[in-house]
Structure formats: C-alpha cells, structure tokens
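Exercise 3.2. Students should predict the tertiary structure of the chain below and write it as structure tokens, then compare their answer with the key that follows.

Predict this chain's 3D structure.
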Amino acid sequence: MTTFTFSWEEKLLNKANEAISGNIFPAVSVDQMLLDDAYHQAASITREHSRTFYLTSGLLPQPQRQAARALYAFCRISDDLVDERTSGRREKLARWRKESLADHPPADSSIPLAWADTRSSFQIPRHYAEQLLEGVSQDLEKARYQNFDELAHYCYGVASTVGLMVMHIIGFKSQAAIPYAIKLGVALQLTNILRDVGEDWRNGRLYLPQDELALYGLSEADIAAGRVSRRWRAFMRFQIRRARSLYRQAQPGIAMLEKSGRFAIAAAAGLYQAILEDVEANDYDVFNRRAYLKGTQKLLRLPGIWLGINRI
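Answer key:
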C-alpha cells in the first residue's frame, strides 16, 4: 500500500474511508426505453464537453461505459451550475442536489434517472456523490488557496471523488485501491488547474497555492499580466514535477482494478499527462493558449498505453 507522507494525504484517505461505508442508493424501477434514452443523453453530454473522457470511457465494456458517462453528465451539470454567471446559483445547486440524489427521480428527468440507475447498479456510496457536490460548491465560496494542503482538499472534492465512484463502476479488488484513486484524482485536477490558469483568472479564480507563488517571487499581478518570466517557468516546472510524481504514485492502483477497466483508466492518466507536455512545449504560456492534444495525437498514444497495461 502507498505510503502517506503529508497531512493532506492522511486527511483525504480518512474522508474516503468514511464515505465508502455510507448508504447505498436503492434500485430504480423505470421503463427501459426511458432509461435507454436517459443514458443516450448522458453520452451526448459527455461527447460534447469532454472528448478525452468520451474516448477513454469508450474503452470500457458497455454497461460500465454508459455508467461512466452518466457519472460524467452528473458532474458536468453540477459544475456548470456553479460556473453560471447568473444570480441564484446556490439555490439552483441546492435544487440540483435534491434532484440528482433522489432515490427515485422523475421519469422525465433524464440525467438524474441515468445517474440513479448507475448508482444503484454499481453500488456507489451516497457520500461520494455528496462529497463531489460539496467540492463543486466550494467555487461559490472560495477563489484563492493559501497552500497545497487546501488545494488538495479541493481537488479531492471535485476529482478524487469522481475516481472513487469510477472505481466502483469498474470494480476493484480491495479498499487498498482507495489511496491510489485519491492521488490520481489530485493529479488530474492539478493538470486541469495548470492548463487553465488564464481562463480561471478571467473567471475570477486562482487555484495556484499562494505561498508557493510567493516562494517563487510571483504575485497576482504577474498572473493578471500573463507574464511568462524566468520565475514563472521555474514555478510551473515545480508544479508539473509534483503532478507527474502523483501520477507515478497512483499507477500501482491500476493493477487493483478489474482487468476490463484498466486500459480506460491508464489511458485517461496517460492522455492527461500529455497535456503537461504541451504546456512545456508552449514555454509554460497558459495565459494565451489552452494546452491540448488533437484527436490523432490521442489515438497514437493508445497502443503504448495498452502495452504498458499488459505488463501489469
């Protein structure tokens, strides 16, 4: 089992272990045609908003594939409600929380219906879904993070919880897989944060640890100016090393998943790590250009990822 060195890791492991023992959602009874349509809409949302998640979830067997996309749609809608530039976001999120966590959502409420069926079918603990909604709602209250400990807790809420729920969809050998899922989630969200610095700043948010910015002689004025300086490059190199270290530490957890799901998770981790390479290739300018991989670049990486998984 992975060794925990920092306080944030111990705290997050405790949160995950407490949540896994929570209540399981009851079975959903609904007309199959309505359910099929609900899953189709979830897949459409996934395809529209995340080509990478759509691609990697497509590597799963069909039942797990549609469940992963229902989970994504639940997360996407939750996040979009918080990101809306309108009044009443808290009230909308509260209504969505009630609707999306209902044991028996209305038959005409497509995404909550697909998500309810997924939760029940794969015995996803209720607390993980609740923790995700709590993590998403943090964006309504907090726009700065003093240190990485604070940031890691945010990453757990919005990303590690997703990994823990995906772990239930795929299947896992034992709870020893939990710390690896936590670290992978933090690594993935940290990659998002490094990629989206410019976009987040324009939306009034800065997820970079304040104490580490100061350590490298950087201020919010540097972020506002989009200044790619020697100090900024050094700061970004440090952050990318941290993200890559978390990806490496998370990798042993893939072997603890059911074999049919390992390729999908390894592909997601591998493709996201490639975003960091694009950040480096663009001289750490995350203010004027969003790092990404083209579809062909993603496909070309899959055979190597597949070979690596088969060595596990």
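Discussion points: Residues 1-5 have pLDDT under 50 and may be disordered. The CA atoms of residues 79 and 272 lie 19 Å apart.
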